[in-house]
């Protein structure tokens, strides 16, 4: 199973993610330059037909139902319907609309001239093995209603195999929200460039497996529209090449970075251990772990190569303070938060006051949300990363409506705080203060369990001591989810506990050739 769908991006552009408006502007340049709309539609239809035949061989999918909308998404679907019929598939069209765009109307008329049946009744598609969804693409402007909505619900109840063209119909192509109702697709064949709405956590159950179909949009048209904007793009396997895997023979441990992890408590002893186990897989030269005194034997027992700093502790077994002689200037990457509890804000204040690159997670974030710490963050000079999951993000940034558009909310939070924001989720979004956004297109629900985030914090702390912070953050996020995917592949989606995840970090790394 390819862990990452092959990305047909031949023009070495970043794998951009676009808004509906940006897509329209790019396509507008192509049409103004002379590409006939009908020609592009025909090209798109041929590309889609080829891919659908690979996904749905005729012997297993002899009868196909095609949903034909009133716009060019419907036009695409009609080209596909005709081409598949000519290749021997049984095809029936569903088109309940009274009017359609001229090009779509022409294709409908031609399909009918070829004898392809058209019905306004969705039940006439009940015998089909597969449904191709060409109802709406990025032109959907308002919620589905009436008969269209009822038919979409009926179709979803059938639970047939569904391939959506460009976007599952009913989905808002920017926000990924459902407008009244939406087709639930097994595959979404996205045309040309990924739409922002397809990268939203809440849309994933509707999208199914997302594939990009290269329709030959010239790089010059893409960069003409996107070039001067802070890009929104996907993480890609190229990140494997950025990991610090090349070492000079003459290196020594002090040249491979020194990271510090701060956390752990009587209530939460394991999370800091998980972070430490992950940090050491990054090959960091030295790893220090500051924990309450009573946890020192636990860490030493499991991570004997770590320098464990036993800290004075509160009566509840949390860190009361960092040792006075701890020189934070020795560290090039600090990860603070796993299992910390919110008992001792002074620990976070001390780290925030330091000039160290700092990643705050879990209770480190909950303490940051208290008082005016967050508003002061913009004055911090050293690189700072916040790694909230949805709940922590809402506590930190209650005014930012992340639900509808998590990547844009992360961007706004980054611009407000001057920190990098890694908003964890099914499609983790990373934003930096200049407005750039990266979205991880590939992960696994196997990670949706306690401890997964602690492993990420360890990777971040370990890589921040060896790489430039942004590259380290992107690489850690990619590495973390790829390890999760590999672990799920070999242990089922239920078998990826955080401890096992730490044991899949090196196998995931090893499974990708390093040039
Ligand atoms: N541009 C190109 O040539 C290319 C485009 N491509 C393909 O075309 C898609 C974009 O095409 P599009 O712009 O025609 O929009 P699309 O989503 O097909 O239809 C929207 C239409 O539906 C209507 N409508 C809206 N809401 C409605 C509702 N709730 N209930 C009922 N009707 C509703 C609305 O009409 P209205 O009623 O608003 O007048 C509008 O006309 C794109 O996703 C890709 O697949 C690619 O092939 C590349 C080349
Ligand atoms: N449905 C999902 N699909 C993919 N990744 C997920 C999903 N749910 C959570 N994750 C990932 O799992 C990790 C969970 O982190 P977090 O909630 O902080 O866990 P904890 O703090 O308990 O360690 C994050 O990296 C997140 O991106
Ligand atoms: K569609």
TrEMBL record:
This is Bifunctional NAD(P)H-hydrate repair enzyme. In the N-terminal section; belongs to the NnrE/AIBP family. Catalyzes the epimerization of the S- and R-forms of NAD(P)HX, a damaged form of NAD(P)H that is a result of enzymatic or heat-dependent hydration. This is a prerequisite for the S-specific NAD(P)H-hydrate dehydratase to allow the repair of both epimers of NAD(P)HX. Keywords: ATP-binding, Isomerase, Lyase, Metal-binding, Multifunctional enzyme, NAD, NADP, Nucleotide-binding, Potassium. Signal peptide: none annotated. (6S)-NADPHX binds at residues 72-76, 137-143, 166, 339, 389, 454. It catalyses: (6S)-NADPHX + ADP = AMP + phosphate + NADPH + H(+); (6R)-NADPHX = (6S)-NADPHX; (6R)-NADHX = (6S)-NADHX; (6S)-NADHX + ADP = AMP + phosphate + NADH + H(+). Binds 1 potassium ion per subunit. K(+) binds at residues 73, 133, 169. PROSITE patterns: YJEF_C_2 (PS01050), YJEF_C_3 (PS51383), YJEF_N (PS51385). Its cofactor is Mg(2+); K(+). AMP binds at residues 424-428, 453. Residues 236-512 form the YjeF C-terminal domain. Homotetramer. InterPro entries: Carbohydrate_kinase_pred_CS (IPR017953), CARKD (IPR000631), Nnr (IPR030677), Ribokinase-like (IPR029056), YjeF_N_dom (IPR004443), YjeF_N_dom_sf (IPR036652).
